[in-house]
Amino acid sequence: MNNSVTNTARLLGAGLRALLVLTLVTGVIYPLVITGIAQGLFHDKANGSEIEADGKVVGSSLIGQSYNLPLKKGQETPAADLKWFQGRPANGLGTNSVNTQYKLILSGATNLSADSGAVNGKCPDKPDDGTLCAQVLAAKDAVVKDNSVPGYTVKPSEVPADAVTSSGSGLDPAISPAYAELQVHRVAAKNGLSVSAVEKLVKDHTEGRTLGFMGEPRVNVLELNIALKDLAAKK
């Protein structure tokens, strides 16, 4: 009986010591070491890849934002503020989901197939509402209309894919250089800037492929619009 109690006490003691040691190592030492390494070597990424402007955080380089006019009475969806560069459509999980306009409650793709609304592999002139074809054609018409200004007309064939489709998450912070360049004339006209100055702005904020071979060249829309604001303030 005494041996049984002694063995049980010894096992409980060993178990408690192991628990305390493992708690200290995995719950205190390891997190502190990893946090220290992250803060020392990857400070920006460890803190959310924050972007600052005028001394305050205005967003993250990893999450897209909307650039819209204030919602008017009777409007369900605000109109785009066309003095700014616009990002990709923020359909995310669909136009009726909680993830429209880059809200962070939920993220995901529309789940519409690539041939949604297509006939014989092509989008008809009047596809069914709610299909991918309908979304893409409506977005293309808007891009052509919004970015055609006196002296510069956008052709439907010039509209790149990322201008009319949302990303897999619906939160993509970047656009292609082609889409940024397509918006240059409109942004220049709306801000009273020269086309060449805005073109240079886009060129200066175009990032190449990661490590030279991964992904595609891209332009972070928030960073570009911050630079645009600074440029417009100097005119």
Description:
The chain is mainly alpha-helical and 235 residues long. The chain has two domains: 2-44; 52-88 and 130-164 and 172-234, no CATH class. The chain is built from seven helices and five strands. It has helices at residues 2-41, 43-46, 132-147, 177-182, 184-191, 195-204, 221-234; strands at 50-53, 56-60, 174-175, 206-207, 218-220. The strands form two sheets. Strands 3-5-4 form a three-stranded antiparallel sheet. It has a two-stranded antiparallel sheet with strand order 1-2. Strand 1 (50-53) and strand 2 (56-60) form a beta hairpin. The mean pLDDT is 88.
Helices, strands, pairings?
Blueprint (H helix, E strand, L loop, with lengths): L1 H40 L1 H4 L3 E4 L2 E5 L71 H16 L26 E2 L1 H6 L1 H8 L3 H10 L1 E2 L10 E3 H14 L1
Antiparallel strand pairs: 1-2, 3-5, 4-5
Helix pairs in contact: 5-6
Pattern of helices and strands: HHEEHEHHHEEH
Compute the gyration radius: what is it? Answer: 26 Å
Report, as a whole number of angstroms, the end-to-end distance.
Answer: 92 Å
Taken together, the total number of domains comes to 2
Number of helices: 7
Largest sheet: 3 strands, antiparallel
Helix-and-strand structural type: mainly alpha
**Which whole number gives the mean pLDDT?**
88
Strand ordering within the main sheet = 3-5-4
- Report helical residue fraction: 40-55%
**Low-confidence segments:** none
Strand content: 5-15%
Number of strands: 5
Shape: elongated
Specify the oligomeric state: single chain
